[in-house]
Amino acid sequence: MESENKIYQELKKRLTTDTYDHGQKLRAEVLREEFECSASTVREILFRLASDGLVHFLDQKGFRVPELSPTKLIELTHMRILLESEGAVLSIRQGGVGWEASLTAAHHKLSHLEKRIHAREDPTELVDLWFNSEKEFHQTLISACSSSTLKHMHSLIYAQFRQQLMKADRKFDFISNNIKQHNDILEAALAADEALTRKRVHDHLARHLTGQTATLASESDAE
Amino acid sequence: MESENKIYQELKKRLTTDTYDHGQKLRAEVLREEFECSASTVREILFRLASDGLVHFLDQKGFRVPELSPTKLIELTHMRILLESEGAVLSIRQGGVGWEASLTAAHHKLSHLEKRIHAREDPTELVDLWFNSEKEFHQTLISACSSSTLKHMHSLIYAQFRQQLMKADRKFDFISNNIKQHNDILEAALAADEALTRKRVHDHLARHLTGQTATLASESDAE
DNA sequence: TTATATTAAAATCTCGAAAATCTGAAAAAT
DNA sequence: ATTTTTCAGATTTTCGAGATTTTAATATAA
């Protein structure tokens, strides 16, 4: 019998990696057995995850892993641009040398991983490490922003974004060619150039939206 | 025995009006009795509301109405500015004459109420109507934006904002002098002036933030 | 054959009670 | 007098069984 929060974290982790299939049913009885707890406990946790947007709930029909949705991915990208560029600018204003240091550190780790992957050094195993490192970099970017509401919102969006992106067959074309972009973001942030940071965060996140129908209001602003 | 969703809606309504005190304990047993359902059902609903940010949950210590927090209110205002100005601009681009019509309609109803309140016509009873009408106007403003993710996020933020603001003693000084500002927003939106709409949404929402410590990045952008 | 009705199996939902945990007051020790 | 320990009442959490609903397989009728 594991603690409720442990189970929540474990399920969240699975839902943001490619453990489950999109659209797969999450049956309380199965999870109950695996986690050695009661069905009601599982139900509570699934409700929480549903509010986080990581599982889909239908009355009398149970819980499912959300379907893949290109539209949703575009919307999530849009939200990330909105929240991360705002959070980054606020961090530039509010964060001191400590923030700069941790951002540099996060970038260094990420950069190191990216070089190893680029050199095709055992990519399959490095991919998970890369995703965690990428998450850490982007979280650190906004970490000095004083608004915990913004940071919380961002973490919700980020988790859903990952969930949409995490099918194995999509992983690789997402990772490619990020070294320069992450470098550029770091550079602009350390230079405390707010407009440039906004633009580079935008360009980085929007890199896979080319040719998409939905227009972002922030796109034209960032020219 | 009421349906689970009914109870959820009713509780949500109470939490965003001044039914409960801030910090008040929400005991499952009490709610169970009132809504004539089981404690587990109440628990499920309270977990959902906790993820919505409308109740505060502490492990082994139950559920509470969140405390009043000036900081939180500032952060929520900040998020509203971010989401609403973006949503409004997208609506200007994506909404057609139907959107313009419904925005005009929402404004007309709100405007009518504001005039009655301004004339001190039975204010206490009109206040609740005003808040609903105000909500409708702001929701309509972003309604033509295609991103349901943005709209969902906004509705979460708006509900928390209302909850922070809804103590009876704060209601009145929040309502005062909005006629012109709502007018200005409508005008800019109908003129499809994106920059002006952004600025007016910002000024309107930030009207109670004067002298506050936290700086908004969007503030300097909107000059 | 196709569509509808029937029914059994499977899954979900609700419930009240048992188990675990917390709280605060009274007793004991320093 | 102050701190620590003990303990009982109150609250929260977990649980599994029974009620309800959905699903899917089979039978019946058009």
Which terms summarize this structure?
three-stranded antiparallel beta sheet, Four Helix Bundle (Hemerythrin (Met), subunit A), homodimer, 11 helices, Arc Repressor Mutant, subunit A, mainly alpha
Quick overview:
The structure is a homodimer of 223-residue chains. With 223 residues, the first copy, chain A, is mostly helical. In chain A, 69% of the residues lie in helices and 4% in strands.
Overview of the structural elements:
Two copies of one chain form a homodimer. In chain A, 69% of the residues lie in helices and 4% in strands. Chain A is globular. Chain A starts with a helix and ends with a helix. In chain A, helix 4 (70-94) packs antiparallel against helix 7. Chain A has 223 residues and is mainly alpha-helical. Chain A has eleven helices and three strands, in the order H-E-H-H-E-E-H-H-H-H-H-H-H-H. In chain A, strand 2 (56-58) and strand 3 form a beta hairpin. The model of chain A has no long low-confidence stretch (mean pLDDT 89). Chain A has a three-stranded antiparallel β-sheet. Chain A folds into two domains: 4-64, Winged helix-like DNA-binding domain superfamily/Winged helix DNA-binding domain (Arc Repressor Mutant, subunit A); 70-221, GntR ligand-binding domain-like (Four Helix Bundle (Hemerythrin (Met), subunit A)), CATH 1.20.120. Chains A and B meet through helix 3, helix 4 and helix 7 of A and helix 3, helix 4 and helix 7 of B. The structure holds a DNA duplex (30 and 30 nucleotides).
